[in-house]
Amino acid sequence: xxxxxxxxxxxxxxxxxxxxxxxxxxxxxxxxxxxxxxxxxxxxxxxxxxxxxxxxxxxxxxxxxxxxxxxxxxxxxxxxxxxxxxxxxxxxxxxxxxxxxxx
Length: 103
Prior knowledge:
Elements: H1 2-14, H2 17-34, H3 45-102
Helix pairs in contact: 2-3
């Protein structure tokens, strides 16, 4: 039973939005740093046809930056939500202990 609980916590932590966001931010930053030429990729043929080789490269970089901004926003929302939950639990706990002391 305890082994299953430990495994469940590991899986839950692995799919935590902060962990996923940090991993995806790292992936997008690696894409920003490592992508130098998009003309050799067959999937980028439409971008190269629309914007040219330099425009396609900058469009890809802009897309990576937008994903990074989105992932940072998701992490920030998760942190704000956790703070709200902790404050709510503290308030409820302080109210419960105050009522018990009065009795």
